[in-house]
Every structure is written in C-alpha cells, then in structure tokens.
Amino acid sequence: MINPLATELNEVLDAGIVGPFLSSLGRRLFFPRGIIAQSAEAKKIAKINATLGMAFKGGKPLALSPLLSQLPGLTPEELVVYAPTAGIESFRKAWKASLIKKNPSLKDEDFSLPVVVPGITAGISYIADLFLDEGQVMLAADPSWDNYNLIFSERRGAELKGISLFSDTGGLNLVAFEKALKAEANASKTGTAAGIVRIILNFPQNPSGYTPLKTEADALVAMIKECAESGASVLVICDDAYFGLFYEENIIKESLFGRFAKLHEKVLAVKIDGPTKEDYVWGLRTAFISFGSRGLNENAYAALEKKCMGIIRSSVSCTNTPAQNLALKTWENPATEAEKKVFFDLLFSRYKTVKQFVAENTAPPSLEPLPFNSGYFMSFRCKESGKPGGAEKLRQNLLKKGIGTIALGDEYLRVTFAAIEEEEITFVYRTIYETAAEMG
C-alpha cells in the first residue's frame, strides 16, 4: 500500500516526464509530515520549541568547548545544529549560482534548486534508488569507475551495460554510443509503450581522464535528442565529480547537463556534483543533485525534491552541518579563487609532464595509454599474450617496487598523476613501462 503522500507526488510526476522512470522504491518514497516538517513549522511560529531532539540553553545549542575551539570560525549553530533535510538553503542557492557562472549557457529556469547529499557517491546511489529497478539497464562507458558496478548492479540488481569508450583510432567511440542508445531504446519497449533509456556520463572521466572534444560533445547531444525524438524517454545522469579540471583548449568546458536540461521534453537530465574535487575538500562529503528538463515545471521539481528528501530522511537524515558551513565560508572568502588557481596550475603541470613522457616514450607492446586530457587520472589498457589482461599482475609487480596503482578488472591500470609529486612522475612512468616490458 503506497502512502497517500507518495501518491500525491506520483500524480504530479506521472503527469510529466518523470513517472516512467520511477523505480518501485521511487514510487513509494515521500517526505513525511513528521518530526522534521513539524519542527520546521514550529521554528517559524512557536515561542517555545519542544520539537527536535537537540538541547539548548539561553536559546543557543549546547556545544562542548573542546569542539568549538577546533573550529573557531563556526558558531554553535553552524557547528552542531541539524541541517535541513535538503540542505542549508544559502548553501544550495550559492551552488546553483556557481553552476550558472561556470556554465554560461545554463540559466536559472533550466534546472532545480540543488539538493544537498553526503557526497557524490551518495548522490549517484540515491538516483539509482529513485530511478532503477532490478533487471533494468544502466548504460555507462567501459572502462568506468568501479563503484558504478557496486551501486547499479550489486546494490540495485540492475544490469550495468558498458559502452566502449574509445574507438580504435582514438577519441570517443561515437559509433558504439549511438548503437548502444538505439539498441536499448528498442530493447526496453513494452507492447505499445516506448522504450526507456538510462545512461550515466562522467566527464572528466574516471578512470581515463578524458573529456570529449567539442565536436564529440555535439554528437553525443544529437544522439540523445534523436533517441528522444524517436519516442524513447531518456534519463541522462551527469556525474561531474571532476568538473573544472580541463587542460586542453579543444575540449568542452561546460557540463553537458546544461544542454541536456533543455534538449527535449522526453529527456530528464540529472547533475551530480559538488565541491569534493572542485574545491579540494574530499573529506567534507557534501555534494548536490540537480534536475533539469523541458518537460518539468516548478511542481515537478518540488515533487522530485520531496522524493530526494524521503531518501535522505530514511538513510542519513541530513547532510553534515559543519561541512556545509565550512564550504560556504570557503566560497565567500576572497582568497579562495586565487588558491584554487595555484592548485589547478600544480595539477596542470603534472598533467603536462605525464603527457610529455607518454608522447616521447614508446610503451611496451603489452601497454596501451588511453587518451587523456583532463581530471586526476590516466589509464593504460593492459594486454597479456596479445589479449586483454595482466593489469592485476602488473599492479602487484609495481607494488613490489614501491609504486601503488589501481587495477580495474584485469584490463585497465589507472594511475592518479594528481597524487604524484612532479619530480617523481618520470620515475613512476619509466618504472611502469619497464615492469610491463619485463612481464612480456
């Protein structure tokens, strides 16, 4: 039996594009008119507020002085009080404003007010909860971040179907993407109902460190539009974890979310991002979910927000309060942008050193550097006896020489050049090449 509050939200979403995408869990989700909602109401009206499970004295929350002394820039309210379920409103509005600034083609009316979640991983997982059922298909690049498999396949019971990321001649494998989109649109048809396509795009990409060229981005957008025009509903998730770390001039420097959000009435775009990598605050674990579509109105955005709030309330209740306030104060500090430029230049210099090594040194036959132009990483395709394989063996052999890398399956070896001191880069890559050559 679905709760009446969930039914209300479903009726709003069924009237537009979102309804067909909702999972069985997504249809059951709602934000209760319980403690949180009643406390918010009391905060506005009541003279004496006996609602939330917090303790106060003199109108201030109780906070231990050793804790306060560690973060003197935060008030007790900014440090220990529960944040609203969808996040601190000023934090949400500041992030939305920053998205428009970083993506000039994106307008305020194109997308929702972002919802705060405890990290990009949580955001992806929540979207999977909302839109993915057992046995359904999620398209993703191959190779892709290994956590996609854990989230989509193991946790949700869906099929993670890989699309070969690169063509044999280098660059994005547009033929494979087009083929996968059309095949899924046809395979997901049921009777007279049109197909439903779900795809996650991650640029700059983990593990390859690749962002599409402008022409490749245009082609991807055109494919999604063609899919929608053929009658299919398309959910496109933009995992923008590494947004902003763009090192070449011929690649896109805006999120594809901005184009998908106003592409077609049958395209639902979701953006998952945050300061994690952009602002070098990995451990703060704050991120955002934003929705955009020509097929959505304010009521639909509000219903989606309530669905997200239901997921958050039923899992972590709310996202870390001091993390949100620390990030907000960081953005407001005039020194931040200059320091971020210094950090970017540091990573850019490391990138150029890796790029130069790969260009000037021929890799052994068992090792193929994948294209890379952005982000934290680059990867190698490993071959053993002329066939894909050997990544784990190479990782183990490198570990014996004091170098840590990541094997993704047995075909790909990921190297995080962002984590290597520049003066060590040549040594690391020379050792990788020599070790691969020794293995044959």
From the structure above, extract its key features:
440 residues; alpha+beta; five-stranded mixed beta sheet; five-stranded antiparallel beta sheet
Structural notes for this entry:
The chain has helices at residues 4-14, 24-28, 35-45, 65-70, 76-80, 89-102, 120-131, 147-155, 174-187, 214-229, 257-260, 275-278, 298-313, 321-332, 336-360, 391-400, 422-439, and strands at 56-57, 60-61, 115-117, 137-142, 159-164, 196-202, 233-239, 267-273, 287-292, 367-369, 377-384, 387-388, 406-408, 412-416. The protein has 440 residues and is α+β, with helices and mostly antiparallel strands. Strands 3-9-8-7-6 form a 5-stranded mixed sheet, with helices on both faces. Strands 10, 11, 12, 13 and 14 form a 5-stranded antiparallel sheet that branches. It has a two-stranded antiparallel sheet with strand order 1-2. It starts with a helix and ends with a helix.
**Tally of DSSP β-strands:** 14
Strand content: 15-25%
Count of helical segments? 17
Overall morphology: globular
**Average pLDDT:** 95
Q: Any idea what the radius of gyration is?
A: 23 Å
Strand order of the largest sheet: 3-9-8-7-6
- The N- and C-terminal alpha carbons lie at a distance of 61 Å
* Global structural class: alpha+beta
- Quick one: biggest sheet? 5 strands, mixed
Q: Considering DSSP H and I runs of 4 or more, what fraction of the residues is helical?
A: 40-55%
Uncertain ranges: none
